[in-house]
Amino acid sequence: MTDENSELLVRHDNSITHVTLNRPAARNALTFEMYESLAALCGRAGTADDPDNIKVIVISGAGDKAFAAGTDISKFTDFTSVEDGLAYEHKMESVIQQIETCRVPVIAALHGAVTGGGLVIATAAHLRLASRSAIAGMPIARTLGNCLAVANLRRLVALFGESRVAHMILTAELLDADALLASGFVHELLDDKPALIARATEIATRMTAMAPLTIAASLEGLRRLRHDAPLPDDRDLITEIYQSTDFAEGVSAFLDKRTPAWQGR
Question: What pTM did the predictor assign?
């Protein structure tokens, strides 16, 4: 039985697993433990080690304000060296890869804010639906002063296109639900959150009757197409950002609820 106080609620229902990011007071910002639990679930689903016979995973966020607003910023206060930033990006990449390589379809049901790491999770999912309240973006140049790993830039570009991703990051503007639909990032808009979850469950139920090997092979084939070209090395970019004065200021300002004073160093 799921502990309703858990930060990650997991409910199994007829081979459909509903995962709820459950920190509504923090706009469902993810802790490292939440990331790791989600990765473990996705890594297990559809394998011989899956006792729940999961055929589809639906991810949503608790409350009305957000699907997920990214990583819990308080986790960055412990960063003291270049290695901390590199280790963080390595950890995040392993989590996103587990979602992306899941052998069963992962549906992201998006409601409210979908930003930062929340947007990356949605990008790694295989299908995306949204309510009309959904807004999405990557406002890190305004809020935190960090950067995206090149692997995540590629994921965003594959779904949004390079021009839209550049605009998203450089302006810190959020895309509304109509723009998300027009871009092809989401496949359908629903009027409200209950309708969103109902539609996601309806699609998931349809998928449970599909040929599992066909689905697994198709998901992996699409992933290989997206990642066909090798990634350039981005360790210099990550190192520069995470040891910068601006990143430390961004974290401090966020936690103090004030506007950052960027210095460009």
Answer: 0.93
